[in-house]
Write a structure and sequence with these properties.
Relaxase/Mobilisation nuclease domain-containing protein, 3 domains, three-stranded antiparallel beta sheet, 11 strands, alpha+beta, BirA Bifunctional Protein, domain 2, five-stranded antiparallel beta sheet, Endonuclease_MobA/VirD2, 429 residues
Length: 429
Amino acid sequence: MIAKIGKGENLYGAISYNQKKIDNENGQVLLLNRIPETLDNTYSTSYLHQCFEPYLSANIRTEKPVRHISLNPDPTDRVSDGQFVEMAQEYMERMGYGNQPYIVFKHTDIERTHIHIVTVCVGLDGKKLPDSYDHPRSMTICRDLEQTYHLIPATEKQRTGNEQVFRPVDYRAGDVKSQIASVVRHLPKYYGYASLGAYNALLSLFNITAEEVKSELHGQPKNGLVYFALNEQGEKASNPFKASLFGKQAGLDELQKQFATAKEKMKADPVRAVLKSTIEVAMHTAINEADFKKQLLEHGINTVVRRNDEGRIYGMTFIDHESRTVWNGSALDKKLSANVFNGWWNEQAMGQSQEVEKTSAQNQPSTTGNTVEKEETHSLFDFLNKGQPTDDLLIDGLGGLLPEAQGEDYEEQEFANRMNKKRKRKRLK
């Protein structure tokens, strides 16, 4: 079972999202905890929102008081409504929300029947409920629930315990080749991606890009890859490095094999439905692009947006660190394509620009009204650099995943490998 914990401030949007599932006959309310029932057992968005008001009013300082949690069993698991209720109650009790008002919704609009839980993390006394290490605690509870209810365990990569995370490449620090090598030598082992574009989206979080090059060898066409370091604007900031410098697994031939394998595997991957649902929730509740990215980051999902020189979005990629898979938006659903986001965010930007111009005209001399917020693509990965898992953004599905290889001398290592091969050949002779 996979759990996703969303943290935000738009309570009305979270309730409304679930209410729309009910209105479309794709959902139902399974449980109300500390929320009065109505005579006809129907619950409007406004009524449910009012039930949380005393808690929100008691603490106006907490920036993200809303919790929107989803519990997602495997599609082949058969879970009754009664079991869903029991699982929700145990989960919320152990997470510290047992005495809070919360609503349990069941969704049946996708292959994976699952539940969403909406609550708040502030009490009537105005105090915020402690939520340190909530992702590791959530995963422990899910493992216990899988055993109790005989559910299929979530497929997760096991960690050795002595592994450490990588750092994004800093082109100013020198020895760029070793920095790139420490990433691309190991990254393919841990993530699934079905195209070079998806692979580059993941690499961009490490300030790296790969570019296909075409040439001829003995009159035959030959394709390969070169790698570059990127600067803060996502522009090439180093000389190209041939993929062969970083080992066979970093080359185009091996990556294309991995693309084909991942493409087939991801077609039937149950994570797809969970990720799609999570993104749709963020689309429904986010107030702008920055808020959308922030909400998904709370779920351990990076969003990589690719724009052309005119600012038009031509690519949306979502990197789910819990399942370690990379998805193009259009591959998840047509409603998550680049065109959809381009229209949505452009409309928001135009509206904000008009409002700024209107305010400026009323209050002060006219200035530039259309301010474009810088897109911090690479900084979304900064939570990997935290030394201790005290930050809420340190997602357990990613923290401590990749082995530390910074500082290795790869040229010396390659030389030693070649010498070992020569010794083996001599022994065979």
